[in-house]
Amino acid sequence: MASAPRARSGWSSGRPPAHATPGAGVLAVVAEGKTNAAIAKQLWVTEKTVETHVSSILGKLGLTQAEDSHRRVLAVLAYLRSTAA
Is residue 1 part of a domain? Predict the structure, then answer.
C-alpha cells in the first residue's frame, strides 16, 4: 500500500516556492553574472539545458525581445525582488 505524499513544511500553498524550481537554480547563477557556458559547467548540465531554462524563465516573466532592455538583467532584478521578501 502506497502512502500519501507528505506536505513539506513551509509550503503553505502545497507547492514548492518559485526559488525551489530547477529554473530558479539557473536564475540564481545568472544573477552572479555568469554566461550560459559557465552556468552549465557549474550545474553539471549542458549549455542547451541552460538555454532552455533561461528561455523558459524569460517567457514566464513576460520578458520579450526589446531593443531598449536586457532581458537577463530584468530577470535577475525580478529574482532579487522575489528573494528579498
Answer: no
User: 61-73: string of b/e by CB count within 10 Å (b at 16+)?
Assistant: eebeeeeeeebbe
Secondary structure (3-state) at 33:
coil
pTM equals 0.68
Residue 35 structural domain: 18-84
Closest CA to 79 of 12, 23, 41: 23
What are the pLDDT digits (tens) for 37-79? 999 999 889 999 999 999 999 999 999 988 889 999 999 999 8
Q: Which CATH number goes with the domain that contains 56?
A: 1.10.10.10
